[in-house]
């Protein structure tokens, strides 16, 4: 692949962050706060999915919650670093 044919960078407002967690999880509460703040600052959309309402998500992520996906790809789990998330959304 040529360096000149790189894909254009997405703008933060064109990205989607997904927080996968569950109710009653203190790490999920902390992650929700960070994701909400960072996405609010940058204009990125975000959604939340509960592993207790989705058997496949539960099977896939129950040992890692909270899990954060950026555009469907796993970004992090357990603790969300706001600066790292900002960089990922701006890349």
Secondary-structure topology with pairs:
Blueprint: E1 16-21, H1 26-42, E2 45-50, H2 55-61, E3 67-70, E4 73-77, H3 82-90
Helix pairs in contact: 1-3
What descriptors fit this protein?
91 residues, alpha+beta, single chain, 4-stranded mixed β-sheet, 23% strand
How many β-strands, per DSSP? 4
Report the order of strands and helices.
EHEHEEH
pLDDT < 50 runs, ≥5 residues: none
Task: Report the total helices.
Answer: 3
User: Outline, from the CA principal axes?
Assistant: globular
Radius of gyration: 14 Å
Structural class: alpha+beta
The fraction of residues in strands falls at 15-25%
Question: Helical residue percent?
Answer: 25-40%
Largest sheet: 4 strands, mixed
What does this molecule look like?
The chain has 3 helices and 4 strands; from the N terminus they run E-H-E-H-E-E-H. With 91 residues, the protein is α+β, with helices and mostly antiparallel strands. Helix 1 packs across helix 3. The mean pLDDT is 93.
Q: What would you say about this model in short?
A:
The chain has helices at 26-42, 55-61, 82-90, and strands at residues 16-21, 45-50, 67-70, 73-77. The chain is of the alpha+beta class.
């Amino acid at each position: 692949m040529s360096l000149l044919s790189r894909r254009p960078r997405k703008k933060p407002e064109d990205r989607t962050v997904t927080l996968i967690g569950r109710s009653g999880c203190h790490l999920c509460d902390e992650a929700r706060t960070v994701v909400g703040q960072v996405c609010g600052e940058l204009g990125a959309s975000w959604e939340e999915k509960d592993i207790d309402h989705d058997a496949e998500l539960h099977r896939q992520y129950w040992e890692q919650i909270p899990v954060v996906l950026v555009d469907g790809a796993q970004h992090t789990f357990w603790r969300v670093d706001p600066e790292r998330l900002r960089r990922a959304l701006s890349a």
